[in-house]
Predict the 3D structure of the following.
Amino acid sequence: MRVVVLAALILLQVAPFMPAGAVNPDEMLADPVQEARARELSKDLRCLVCQNQSIDDSNASLARDLRVVVRERIKAGDSDSQVMRYVRDRYGDFVLLKPPVQPSTYALWFGPLLFAILGMIGVTLFMRRRPASLAPPALSEAERRRVELLLAEVKDGDGRLTP
Amino acid sequence: MITEIGHLALILALVVAILQSSLPLYGAAQNRAALMQFARHAAIGQLGLVLLAFLATTYAFVVSDFSVMLVANNSHSAKPMLYKITGVWANHEGSLLLWILILAVFGAMVAGFGRNLPPTLRARVLAVQAMIAVGFIAFTLFSSNPFTRLWPPPIDGKGLNPLLQDPGLAFHPPFLYFGYVGFSITFSFAIAALIEGRVDPAWARWVRPWTLWAWCGLTFGIALGSWWAYYELGWGGFWFWDPVENASFMPWLAGTALLHSAIVVEKRDALKSWTILLAIVAFSLSLIGTFLVRSGVLTSVHAFATDPARGVFILVLLVIAIGGSFALYAVRAPTLKGGGLFQPISREGALVLNNLGLTVALATVFLGTMYPLFLDAMGSGKVSVGPPFFNSSFVPIMVPVLVAMAIGPQLAWKRGDLAGALGRLWAAFGAAAGIAMGGMLLTGGGDILAVLGLAVVGFVLMGVAIEWAERVRLFQAPLAESWRRARAIPRAAYGMSIAHSGIALVMLAIIATTVWRTEVIQVMRAGEQVNVAGYEFAFEGVRDLNGPNYQAQRGTFQVARNGRFVATLEAEKRFFPVENQATTEAAIHTTWFADLYAVVGDPDGSGGWTVRLYHNPMVPWIWIGAVVMVMGGLVSLTDRRHRVGAPATRRRRAIDHGMPQAAGD
């Protein structure tokens, strides 16, 4: 599906990016636990010169630089959140693929919940309102008396209705 | 000369479309049969003219006529013939032409096969269809003309991006457009119904096949694109929640909701105005998908500035189409009165729940896709909304929808018996519990969410099987009786079961490959071996080769398991000198339960090569599942009640012979 992105890029004559996986063996950390942490963090960081790719799957040189930065911070003993803060302080919110929860993104983060609540309210109202508006109109006094008469005839007779 | 004929044909098609969009509307209002009849002839004539324009462009590509600017910019004489032809739509102007062609094909199909439609409805549908054609043809002629000449012609063309020179990609746009344009028909039906002020079960029955066709096309197109990304991009990713992917996914979500709500209109004469709204939304999102992707506005608000004429044209078109249809909806929808009543616990109720879930999911994807744009336009800073957001919001919304998918078909129309339905599903609950417990034991409680996801998959698959078994009274009646019942079940019901199984398969594969894939990235030298998820990959080194229009470096791996040969994997890096670009060709061997996936990267300068080796469990089932979904749609289309062509005569014959209709569901 990235296909359409590519098609769009080509149409727009934006610098095309090269495919192929990104992380190279020479960047990797010797400690597998640290490397695994670096990979996870990389998935949440945006390659700034690419179109919506994480630095983990981009092989742009800037993405590589950022991967190296992440690994250096991990080697220096930073926790995951410290690494993310370090990168965010330098590159801004734009670098985070998971936007921070802050006033400007409240609508984003709470939007889905709001949609779900509104949807459920809508469905409830729809279910409640419909029978009322569509129920047959109430019987008039004369009609009700006639119904009673008919029912009584059925009850005491042989079931045959005589007008 | 042929190019000029094509150009002229497209101009004439515009004229015909303008007439077709106005005269039949007047005719329907005044009840003038001749004017209404004109719509049919115009629709068929338009198809002829657009086909001529399309063939003229194709001809220019086939003979490599570089005096046509489009060909010079997007083709090359050394390109294989297949990609010369698919190159017609691998660019902005040509893809618009393909869009218009598919639009004309659908229009002509309504004209040709819609004999059982009331004449006023058919005239109005074709007129609305022509309005869309007017917008698109005008946009093509005035701002993206594929027939523009270039003088002096260059000696050779600039070539086609090598990433686009691939079978998966070559046929991705036609299917996607088939889906997008298919929704134009349901849209036209919706607008025509609003003009007429009448929506009834018959309307829903006429619309259903078109929705199904569009849905099948879109499903297949999205799957094809995802498959292409998987094998071409070189690391096995298949879905990225990219704005452009989302642009095709949103119409799919709306279309899936439409497919389900239209059933309620058809069977129960309820949810009418909601269904009309969904038809409008599905096509509006298709328009946004087609246009905003091109305008580049999804990447950045400023991209509009790169070509202001196109940008403004697109905006005006979107405002007229979407704004106009919503305005009409606002005026006319309140006059549509719902008919059938139902309890919340009922088949209708389950379909409402389906629509609620799909709509909330759609709104969420829309919000996430557009949010960076909104924020940027408001000057409130730049953010990125990537996969982490979508995964954490979309997935929880869809889980109840999937669970409901197994329960809903068990409920009766009007008033269902939930306890009874859940009771009949005891085996499905058992399967889910078994998978959950087995999974916990196997993974040591490590991947709880994945295991729970697989339990839902098991529940859905069992639910589908139970529903069918109940219908045919399997093991409750003699086998002959079950067989008779199985044959009497309408095709549409089989279509539903097949499509629902397909969804479950896709889900199964996505969970398995996301959570349990194995990856090895390292430098290897010829003769070295590495173990990936129990498979021994022996690297035999890299050698050079020449392709038709590229040079390749091919790395070879011999793969064995427990000492027994499994496959030879040959991964290539290709360099295309004309376009000065490289591509990777991953080598993939599938065992059906997993893919072995190898990619060769760069040399390290001292005889070693960077290699990426993957074991992707269950991954082929993503696309097999998608194909199963499409098959479900196609089976449903063969249901005699939904057949597009000449159902009227067939039905009449059935009645004449006193044949009972297939048992209703």
Notes: Residues 645-665 of chain B have pLDDT under 50 and may be disordered. The radius of gyration of chain B is 27 Å.
